[in-house]
Fold this sequence. Notes:
Shape: elongated
Order of helices and strands: EEEEEEEEEE
Number of strands: 10
Helix content: under 10%
Amino acid sequence: GVVVWDVTQEGAKERFVVETNTAMLALSADGTKLVTCEGDRLRLWNLASEKPQAAEFPARVVPHLFRSMAFNSDGTRLVTHDSDRALRLWDTTKSPPQSLWDVPLR
């Protein structure tokens, strides 16, 4: 699992554990969103809530293993690079997140 800590108060206090066998993760700059990756499965976690729930990325759009991912500065978009050599831009304000565009790389 992934342990999320509250470090805004004096010292560090464990807030909760996100149950996942993640191979990769990305945290938004404001700390309110977390994306976890388990092979070809992406999940978006809303860390602003007391009990985070995950939104699954659409399976039909995510057929390949992910190599990297990163949020934009305000956490509303996520870009992924996967094993089919494509960049995908996601709208993370939607639940489930929606693919905005795919760009194949050569």
